[in-house]
Amino acid sequence: MTTTPIEQLASLRVGTVEFISPDRIEVQLDIESPDSVALNTGAPRNFPRINGYVMIPVDLGFVVGQVSWITIQRSPYPKRSGFQDFGLIDLPFPLRKMELQPVGTLVATDKGYKFKRGLETFPSVGDIVILPTEDQLKSIIESGDNRRVYIGNSPLVGNAKVMIDPDRLFGRHLAVLGNTGSGKSCSVAGLIRWSLESASNSRKKKDNPVNSRFIVLDPNGEYSRAFADKQDANIYSVNIEEGDGRKQLEVPLWFWNTDEWCGFTKASPKTHRTTIVHALKSVRSGVSSEGFTKEIELANYIRIIIQAIEISVKDGSPFVSKPAFGFHNRLVKWSEGFVVEGDYDDELKDAINNLNAKISTFKTNRTGSGFIDYTYSRQEVKELMGLMGEVYLKAGGKEEEFLPSDEDSPIPFTGENFVRSIEANAEILSTTDYVVTLMPRIKALLSDVRVKKVIDNTTLELSDWLSEYIGSENKESLTIIDLSLLPSDVTSIITAVIARMVFEAQQRYLKLNKACLPTVLVMEEAHYFVKRYNDDAENTGPITQCCKVFEKIAREGRKFGLGLVLSSQRPSELSPTVLSQCNSFLLHRISNDRDQELVHRLLPDNMRGILREMPSLPSQYAVLLGWASELPVMVKMRTLPEAQRPQSDDPDYWDVWTGVKERKIDWKTIADEWQNKESEE
């Protein structure tokens, strides 16, 4: 027997609209509406249920509302004023009410139903409220285009499959937030694995590998086990052992740019930064390299002085009375290095003599009794620079080195040469007293055996590093970077360098190829890397510098094909800039009031109803919302096999206490490894 549409709607009716506003709808439930289980939807389904869905028929289809609260309003039988019902007992009866958050519209199409966010037509007071059928319910949850990756099921919607579009999920940054033990690490590992599996099953040519790139920054070493079965996975660690399948982590110090060196050394922008900039320019140009001839040594010395004079000219020091005195004295001191060696050729000797003669003239003109004017004319400075340029060229220097140079270009140099370059430039720039505080940190870094293997490699080719860490052509690239054994004061800077190198590589790829290279950068325990900081000019520590790198990636990474995945248990400690750029959220259990408040502020008001369940979510359950999902949906994430889960399980206290699981203790082995005694033998 067939039913008419009107009869079908009547059979699904549960209530009537009695109040409506743009963000809230109140419904009076019928007395006959289901109390616990609805049997009229095609399959038994729990009703009413918080965060479940109901519909209101309108002209263009159905307004979909999400249940935010349900209550009982007790009232007596209605009485008419002035009348008395003799012989009847007044008994209260319950009037059930519920509130809905309007989330979108469900429209019938030739291929079924299609859900879209937003309302074009609002219902009116007195409109009926109906239960969606099983097909309609799945259309709501499984709506959207390009839903390619299956991540879990929705327990509120008859276990409908929750599918996501990777372009939406990774292209506009994802934040996975939740307390420890809530399942967020498994969710992150699962999203990576399920995405790769779906891509593998959908590739056009089955023989071709998945052309993907995932880079996981793992401060606790949890993900090595999760992807141990992936043959193409590159797992990098600080200390490697033969046979464990890991590779040596290498982030050479010549990768580091000015900001990172200043961040690591906590350099002052006013007194230290200039010296570091010039030291980097010099050392990247080979100024402090070993094995040079005397001529090249002289050329490099002259080059540094020319750069110093150019700085003085820009700030006007030679042309103003008081600063001119300091400029003159520095020039006299510099001239002590313009020495004619016996094995120089005649042209170089002549050039040096001409330069010394000019400086001698400057000295003579600025000696005597009484008031002495130490200012220099622009013509004198021009002549001086010309003579220095002659010495530089005759000594073997190259003109192109005087072109504007980038102190941050990744050109190899050694730590020892960098130290010498700082000392030489500090002396020339008269900042020796200021850089004294920098040197201990740099020398301690260079002598630390824990990081020496990571930063000390001058033979590494930049192209090889990019190929290994980001991925080569037509290859499934999964890079796990285990940072767990790095010293805490170095971890932030190493992480910043890796992230920046990946970001700049993406920029250059787009520039040269006119198309972006999709890459995902995953940050486990993101509160270590993007920690909130005070925006202070003097705040230049390594943690701050690391956060600034990720803030730039969060703002600009999307257009260069670099997506971020943040995983953190403390969203309140994260940088507001980074969080605000995340367009999708996967929220596990969050119990801290401060963290809950922050998450609520990040989201629109009409999405907040489902977030009330966050404090009580079981492990493995999460709320998916934002750009990756047409509407907020609760997801029970797919279960990963034990061997594919990150190593973040709770300790087995009871089993160890009772002897079910054995734990052998050899503190001597641990102490020897800790003290690097094996390496010394």
Task: Write up what this structure looks like.
37% of the residues lie in helices and 19% in strands. With 681 residues, it is of the alpha/beta class. The chain has 3 domains: 130 residues, no CATH class; 279 residues, P-loop containing nucleotide triphosphate hydrolases (Rossmann fold); 178 residues, no CATH class. It is elongated, with a radius of gyration of 35 Å.
Helical run tally: 23
Query: Any idea what the CATH superfamily of the largest domain is called?
Result: P-loop containing nucleotide triphosphate hydrolases
> Which whole number gives the mean pLDDT?
83
Q: How many strands? A: 21
User: Could you tell me the strand content as a percent range?
Assistant: 15-25%
The biggest sheet amounts to: 12 strands, mixed
The secondary structure category is alpha/beta
Q: What's the Cα radius of gyration?
A: 35 Å
Uncertain residue ranges: 79-83, 287-291
Q: Return the domain count.
A: 3
CATH architecture of the largest domain: 3-Layer(aba) Sandwich
**Widest sheet: strand ordering:** 11-10-21-20-19-12-18-17-13-16-14-15
Tell me the helix content.
25-40%
Report, as a whole number of angstroms, the end-to-end distance: 89 Å
Shape: elongated
The CATH class of the largest domain = Alpha Beta
- CATH topology of the largest domain: the name is Rossmann fold
